[in-house]
Amino acid sequence: MKKSDPLYLSAREASAELAISPATLYAYVSRGLIRSEPSADSRSHRYRAEDIRGLKQRRAPAPEPKGLRSFDADLPVLDTMISTITEAGPIYRGVNCIELAEKDTLEHTATLLWDVTGVDPFAADNCPQVSDEMRVIADAARRAAPLDRAIATLALAASADPRAFTRAPDGRAMVGARILRLVVATVLNAEPSAEPLHLQIARAWAPAHKHAADLIRRTLVLLADHELNASTFTVRCAASTGLNLYDAVVAGLVALKGPKHGGAGALASQLVRMLVDRDVEPVIRERVALGERFAGFGHGVYQRGDPRAISLLDALAKAGAPRKFTREVPERIAEATGEFVNIDYVLAVLVHSLRLPVGSELPIFAIARMVGWIAHASEQLQHGVLIRPRARYVGPVPGRGGG
Hints:
It contains 18 helices and 6 strands. The chain is mainly alpha-helical. The chain starts with 7 loop residues before the first strand and ends in a 20-residue tail after the last helix.
């Protein structure tokens, strides 16, 4: 596979990957099992690499499951035009998010992922409507965890928004922007604002750090979407029942809190705090000897390191973050375990370097990922299909009826 074109294989590469003849490859294409399109020179075709991998997996004999089988990250579940994952990083509607994060904002990323051009969802006058009931709940939950406060407030928000159930694509984009602004305000215990989201967060949580706004902006763009992770699939399932976007986002927030998903950032922060005043190598050696895992390392999709994490680590290093955390810890853990850094660890380094509030890894993750959730919920609502998968039963064989 060419590094410059990681999504596609040539006919020769695709045939070799599947161990089939070109004629069989073309038959798969004609049956819709493999997508193809003309290459840049228009004299040949190129073939989607993920389709090749998926077909190869389905053709391989699978062992009988014992209990629940692990999720297969290479096996597609549904079609989407929103994003995909490559070894070079997630692709947002044809744009690599690593490149996007160099200069763009979460708002611009949202308009890309939501595929909106006819309206400006982030116009100054498109702010959320906050009812008296929402204010009471937000005030009562002022000392609660930010995501719990956001979930409680969002549960009432659809009732306060007369356009919450719009079916128009542009209307859904406008609702999405109001959701983002409402959640940021609720997380920060502030009033909704039309100011850029990364500036609101930086001003509230790191007003004295000159690089905070840019680093937070980068982080939000890199985390905006990651295809069908657990929370995004939860959002799509919820939206497929006909929910409005507010309630679909609530479903995503609840799923994100799990320690195997967005909650992993808090676990990685424990590692960072432990290493602040300790030497790296003895700690790693001891934990490896005890068989302990390192939160923020290893990934089910990226085998050689998370490109988002690598990009943000480089930015943190340039902004003066301790080399101990931007270079030494990732390198030593990779050497000792074979597991490479992922975005959860880098979120922990960001929180430590900017001196953000303890536990702010998860709210930052959630604010960013809501952009992707809204894109996926809108796409699912547009399809109008209920997601209803079937389980493979591996329990006891039913007994015969009594006679």
